Amino acid sequence: MEQICKITGMSMAQQKKWPLFHSLLTDKLVINRAEISTDKLSKEIMQFCSRQETTDEIQERKDAIISHLKKRFNRKFNGSKLTAFGSSESGLGLKNGDIDLCLEFKGEKPKKVLTKIARMLREDGMEDVTLIAHAKVPIVKFTDSRTKIPIDISINNSLAIYNTSLLKLYNDCDVRVRPFVLAIKNWALHRGICNAAYGTFSSYAWTLIALQFLQTSNPPVLPNIQQGDKRILREVEGTIYDLTMNENPADLIKSDNSDNIGDLIIDFFDQFSNNWPWDENVISIRSGKMISRKEKNWEEDKPKLIDALVDENKLRLGKHSLPVEDPFDHLHDLSRVLRTEGVMDIREEFLRAYRVLNEGGSWSEVVKTKFPELVNDSPKTDLFEDLREIPKQEVIDKLEILQDQLNEVESKIKVRKSERNNAIEMSKAIRKNAELKNEENKLGNSLKPRRDKIEKVKKERDSVNNNYIPVHWIEDEMMKVFYRLTEDVDQMSAPSLKKEKELFSWFFELQSMHQHSKKTRELHNQFIKLLDEQKDTLDELDLVKKSSNELFGNYENFDDLAHKLLLELNSIHNEKRTLRREIGRLEAWLRICDRKKRDRKKSNYRKQNNRNISKTRSSVNIEEVKSRASSGESISLSDLGALLNSGGFSSIQNVGKEKSERKKKKKMNNNFTASRGKRGRSKKNY
């Protein structure tokens, strides 16, 4: 039997899973204190924070996703409006954090709209599409198939947009807010305690917890932005909320806190490890301080943590286990999603972080990834990243495999469609049942005429020959007699005349019997055939009656079958779309490879051609070639190439012209005889 701790009630397996918390409960927790360099810790965190700037590629991809979704929703939901909110808009989001989107839409119920959205996202090839319909704010969670960026979509969650504005104001208050909040969120994410779907706090809840600490530090780093005498009340989705926010929050800070990020981080883990705030208090940033459970009327309901831990069947805790108040919706406790193991993990991780820091550990050790599958640290922006180092033939082989899989999937679709159509047809037939009734009547009406025909054939057969002799026996006997009558015999062994007459008489009698027996056999066969037909009709009639009795009134079975087949078809269609997308991606990559190969060939050809031209030019005297060409002499192919690359045949004409002009000029220079020039005539001489 497994050993149980008498003090805590924890089993041995639970003690191993949460050893620090168990040691705390049994007063055995020992932390070896070392000197902590907060400057070094601050430097580490600031370096981490500097890497959280969203790259242009990621931002372009995020914008492209939002733009695509806007177009899809505008076509599907006329008059809808898609707005981004959350940490990506407030400036308090990690580089690879999720995108929060709010679809404002009037008409259908949110859950019904989200169901349609989930189906659309699956058709678009998005991954891990999950509909959380029973949350306070129903959402659809999914992951972009290309970049692996997680995205949440909610319906008419307008209050969250005001929450985003509030967090942005807090972020603008002090330069330490962003690195501090990002450090806490990064720690929670990598240690597996930042996922509401797994029973821990959401990223938004951790942001509020971090801001509350900065409000309650000594002295405070942040003020209460929601304070003020002038209140702003507005109606959101039919409910009045106090949306007061000071537009100049920096003016509200009355003290000066000079702690660096390292100091704040150490104090944060110290407080939550040694002075657990949730024993008596509620996190409330709209109050600027923790408020008591009694004041809020949020006493912890049963089962409490240890009780739920002992009873392993109780996965959820009672209400207000670790209460965190929403800054605007004061009735909303963000701890409502917590489960027993989630709270135990949170307690354990606070103690672990505190121990690592006090023992001189680095920040990277504090945030060491616990569940790699839950962390998206490397979003993809290159569609062909995984193909660049793969040989082309391997891509071709993979493409052939995918084509075979696609053919198989298309065959499945064809079969499922056929099965579904049959189920639909059967459902229709059962509802109307006229077709089966007509078939039953038709079969029943054919029984009596065939029964009369059977009796008639039987009577005719029996009247022809009551002593039925098999035809094959008669035929065998006829062959024997015929052989006796026609065989060659000598005079000594020839039959007597009397014997021969008997043989002939028997042969003729056999002939008569053969005709008679043959007719009897035909009638008998006809009789047997009619009996078989009658039997088949009766069997078919029984089957139709049985089918009628089984199917009439149970058409729901076929409707259920058709629905199940439709769900299977949807799944197979999604598989088909995934395969076609991957096939398209591989084909695109192969085209790119072929284009690069062609470009390299062209480039090599140009280089080779230029080298040949240079070589030709260097080895050929172009002026000599032009001279030979102008005088009509023969030239070689290399001379012709050099000539074409040096201006073509027009250059030859210029050479001839220049040569003629040189000769003319030379001739004029050699003529030294006196001559009188021509006089010009003016108009006066006419």
Write the layout of secondary structure elements.
Layout: H1 12-17, H2 19-25, H3 38-50, H4 56-76, E1 81-85, H5 87-90, E2 99-104, H6 110-123, E3 127-132, E4 139-143, E5 150-155, H7 158-173, H8 177-190, H9 203-216, E6 233-236, E7 239-242, H10 261-274, E8 281-282, E9 291-292, H11 293-296, H12 305-310, H13 340-358, H14 363-366, H15 392-432, H16 434-464, H17 471-486, H18 497-551, H19 555-619, H20 622-630, H21 637-644, H22 650-670
Parallel strand pairs: 2-5
Antiparallel strand pairs: 1-2, 3-4, 4-5, 6-7, 8-9
Helix pairs in contact: 3-8, 3-10, 8-9, 10-13, 15-19, 16-18, 17-18, 20-22
In short:
The protein has helices at residues 12-17, 19-25, 38-50, 56-76, 87-90, 110-123, 158-173, 177-190, 203-216, 261-274, 293-296, 305-310, 340-358, 363-366, 392-432, 434-464, 471-486, 497-551, 555-619, 622-630, 637-644, 650-670, and strands spanning 81-85, 99-104, 127-132, 139-143, 150-155, 233-236, 239-242, 281-282, 291-292. With 686 residues, the chain is mainly alpha-helical. It has three domains: 1-30, no CATH class; 31-374, Poly(a)-polymerase, middle domain, CATH 1.10.1410; 398-487 and 495-558.
